[in-house]
Amino acid sequence: MNHDQDSHTRDISVPLDSSGPIAALQADPGTSGQRRLKPFAIVRSWPRLLWIASLASVLLMVVSAFEWSLVDLLTPFLFLPLRGLAWLIFVTVSVCSVVRLMRNMRHRRAAVPAVICVVALGLVIFVPFTNLWLRLNFTLNRSAREHVVRDVSEGRLAPSMSYANGGGLITLPSGAPRVSNGGNEIETKKHDGKIYVFFYTFRGILSRYAGFLYVPTGGDPNTFSDLNEERRTIIERYDDHWFFVSHH
């Protein structure tokens, strides 16, 4: 009847999967069986979060740095959802990175994804990507635009559409360099015998536009189109004869 009481005191052991999440937990003999997380379990998913944080940060910076090129390529209606999606992904990944950091303060690697997100956010906020893009656009296209201005002044390029205010729209030939966003079209206006030429960097709707205006010697950029509306206009001199103008 005894059987060494084996039937009542059998030791039951469950094999643990060394590759599963349970392997990350180990009983600490000095803490009365409390469970603690092994360091390698924290590091295991760290590379994945690191890559996701890096990709989300790069996506946000690309969208911010090349905003006006993307607007020209996709149109404003498609760019706005793209920018919203980039911000949504970035914010989600940033929150996950911060939560992981708070849960694993003892491990320095856990801070890397959060640091990447913070650096990316700082660059997007403080780096003047639009001004840098405009300066690069002006420098790279200046020679080709001045060639177009000469062709307009000498009559080799004529408006295909005329406006009531004396201006006109010229569609550049198919083989011409791309010097104006929104279809490679330029606007011209003749005022007091002087020819003004406008190249788009942004071509919006409802009188919203921006770009580089060539102003002839003795001319005034305020006389072009509706740039005399001070409250809705930004005019910035870039170089002799060249102004960046924006109307909103």
Roughly how many Å is the radius of gyration? 32 Å
Helix content: 40-55%
Coarse structural class? alpha+beta
Strand arrangement, major sheet = 3-4-5-6-7-9-8
What distance separates the N and C termini?
A: 98 Å
Largest sheet: 7 strands, antiparallel
What is the H-and-E element order? EEHHHHHHEEEEEEE
What is the tally of helical segments? 6
Q: Which strand-content bin applies to the residues?
A: 15-25%
What's the shape? elongated
Mean pLDDT: 83
The count of DSSP E runs of length 2 or more, i.e. the number of strands, is 9
Query: Uncertain spans, ≥5 residues at pLDDT below 50?
Result: 1-44
Description:
A hairpin with a 4-residue loop joins strand 3 (161-162) and strand 4 (167-171). This protein has 248 residues and is an alpha+beta fold. 19% of the residues are buried. The strands form 2 sheets. A 7-stranded antiparallel beta sheet has the order 3-4-5-6-7-9-8. A two-stranded antiparallel ribbon has the order 1-2. The chain has helices at residues 39-44, 46-65, 67-74, 76-103, 112-126, 129-153, and strands at 25-27, 35-37, 161-162, 167-171, 185-191, 194-203, 209-214, 233-239, 242-247. It starts with 24 loop residues before the first strand and ends with a strand. Helix 2 (46-65) packs antiparallel against helix 4 (76-103), helix 2 packs parallel to helix 5 (112-126) and helix 4 runs antiparallel to helix 5. The model is unreliable at 1-44 (pLDDT under 50). It has 6 helices and 9 strands; from the N terminus they run E-E-H-H-H-H-H-H-E-E-E-E-E-E-E.
